[in-house]
Amino acid sequence: MKIYKLPLLKLPGDNRRLMYLSNIEEPRNIYASIFYIEGARQKILVDSGGSAEALKKRGLPVESLASPEEVLNKIGVSPDEIDLIICTHLHIDHNAKGRLYKKARFLVQKKELQAALNPHPVEAPIFPPRDLFVDLDYEIIDGDTQVVNGIKILFTPGHTSGGQSVLLETEKGKVIISGLCTTRNNFFPQELDARSMPVIPPSIHLDIPAAYDSLMRIKKEADIIIPLHDTEFTDIVTY
User: For all residues of the chain together, what is the average pLDDT?
Assistant: First the structure.
């Protein structure tokens, strides 16, 4: 398997959003991406892409770097060719562009879709408008799931009720795309503050102990961790 990280959005970031009860300072900007998986018989994408338009309507500052069509075109793929999209979670900065992918199935946890369709008031502002996701071709799963040979879903709740991460077998070892909104600092905080916990959950969460446990699981099982949010912009990165 080969993984292409394709950045779409630039978001102002700080430790209030990503580093729970930590004094570790985050850079001013973070980036949100989609991830194309090469090497399977199907054309697989992790997340459909966030919507700058919808984020701005919610009063959240954001800068659009590229559209999904533009970044996929750079690696020779069209949205119409995508067979499967694995939704890490359904927040507006990661999954609001599903309608671009005309033939794709959307792999989502049962708890996540239920929460997005009937959101609690504390979560409603961060889910996309219903018309952007309500009637997509969902394949609903419940817990860990083998997708194809070499690709496995890990149920990693805490940031949301139905968050999931993606484990891929590659030549470099087991690569996990974290399904929680994190940067590298969430997984390796001791590099910045030796007094920190082994991992620091994101400040946006529904269940902080579950988020901690999910990060510890990812850290234990992965040889390489790809956080959903980068702190330095690079156009396209491959793993």
Answer: 94
C-beta separation of 142 from 127 below 8 A: no
Beta bridge partners of 140: 108
Residue-by-residue DSSP string for 15-61? HHHHSTT--PPPPSEEEEEEEEEESSSS-EEE--B--HHHHHHTT--
**Which pLDDT score is estimated for 87?**
98
| 3-state DSSP assignment of residue 203 | coil
DSSP 111: H
Domains, the chain: 2-238 (3.60.15.10)
pLDDT given for residue 16 in this prediction? 60
pTM equals: 0.95
How do residues 155-193 score in pLDDT, each as one tens digit?
999 999 999 999 999 999 999 999 999 999 999 999 999
